[in-house]
User: Which sequence fits this backbone?
């Protein structure tokens, strides 16, 4: 009887610990759920100079971001290639959070950074992701700024999220995991809803910028990804 | 140099406070503004939160530690400097008051003046007037 009781306690303790762990999981939102009534900005990346309006923000070295054109269907997109480098493309724009902004894009990872340790959201020494999209909420005092990072991980399960190793104000949300099975994966995120799920409270700051980055500087390896059709607007 | 820090209390506290406030308040306003402005501008330029966390937050921590460590010695220095200024301006006032009291009692004295007193010129002229009035 005592043994059963002990096993019972161990089982429920493990259940609560697992449920309370930071790498919680949320169900990925369905695609084509949101119609945009007001498009704030659309980046089709159709022109050679499409990346000129994006600012490069450098952490280490330069990631090569270039516009490529698919010869078969004449579709153009951004190819990002990192060789032991981390630099992001950043676009400043005011977006009112109260109006329920939605961000849409499509992406595909062609090469993941090679890790020596198991992939973790909050592992500083190998904090590399082949593809990530930032939604940044700047505060008047910068340490209070908040950020949502939608990432494409290699091993972490899709839907898992947690705080970055650098700050609790940076939430990393794994949208995709593993190899890019098809040509492109389409995403659309309700930023307001995601903010509440990730930070556990209503947002008070507006979106001030978006960015995307492919990095492989922490692992000192290579990573490569494709990005296209980034669109931000307000939900209908 | 004569350093007698306790002058007349009513002058002492008032002017000491005024001198410290006139030095500390502008320094605090300018310092706070620069602190906020520099870090905000740099953070805006860095943009990406990881870049800010790696490059700017350690610098912010160092600056904060430096401020905390230097604030007490700076305040002591400020008080010392305020007392020196106080002696140059308020010291003679106390002395003149004492000397004038003696003159009113009928004593024959001259107002004393020190080489570095700011109101040296005025005291010398008052001494000349007292001399003329006597003659």
Assistant:
């Amino acid at each position: 009887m005592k043994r059963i009781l002990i096993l019972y306690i161990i089982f429920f303790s493990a259940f609560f610990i697992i449920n309370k762990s930071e790498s919680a999981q949320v169900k990925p939102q369905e695609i084509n759920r949101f119609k945009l009534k007001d498009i704030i900005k659309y980046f089709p990346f159709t022109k050679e100079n499409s990346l000129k309006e994006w600012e490069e923000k450098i952490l280490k070295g330069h990631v090569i971001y270039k516009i490529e054109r698919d010869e078969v269907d004449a579709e153009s997109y951004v190819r990002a290639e990192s060789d032991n480098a981390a630099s992001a493309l950043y676009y400043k724009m005011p977006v009112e959070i109260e109006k329920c902004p939605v961000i849409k894009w499509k992406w595909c990872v062609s090469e993941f950074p090679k890790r020596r340790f198991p992939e973790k959201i909050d592992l500083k020494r190998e904090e590399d992701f082949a593809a990530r999209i930032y939604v940044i909420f700047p505060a008047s005092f910068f340490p209070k700024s908040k950020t949502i990072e939608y990432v494409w991980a290699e091993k972490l399960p899709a839907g898992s999220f947690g705080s970055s190793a650098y700050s609790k104000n940076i939430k990393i949300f794994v949208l995709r995991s593993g190899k890019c099975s098809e040509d492109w994966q389409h995403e659309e995120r309700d930023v307001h809803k995601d903010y509440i799920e990730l930070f556990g409270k209503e947002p008070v700051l507006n979106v001030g910028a978006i960015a995307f980055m492919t990095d492989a500087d922490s692992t000192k390896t290579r990573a490569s990804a494709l990005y296209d059709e980034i669109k931000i607007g307000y939900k209908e | 140099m004569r350093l007698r820090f306790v002058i007349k209390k009513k002058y002492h506290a008032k002017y000491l406070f005024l001198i410290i406030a006139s030095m500390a308040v502008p320094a605090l306003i300018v310092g706070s503004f620069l602190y906020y402005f520099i870090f905000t501008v740099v953070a805006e330029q860095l943009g990406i939160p990881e870049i800010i966390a790696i490059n700017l937050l350690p610098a912010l921590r160092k600056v904060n530690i430096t401020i905390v460590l230097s604030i007490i010695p700076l305040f002591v220095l400020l008080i010392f400097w305020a007392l020196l200024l106080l002696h140059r301006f308020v010291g003679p006032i106390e002395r003149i008051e004492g000397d004038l009291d003696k003159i009113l009692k009928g004593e024959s004295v001259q107002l004393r003046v020190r080489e570095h007193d700011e109101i040296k010129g005025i005291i010398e002229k008052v001494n000349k007037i007292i001399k003329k009035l006597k003659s």
Summary: The radius of gyration of chain A is 19 Å.
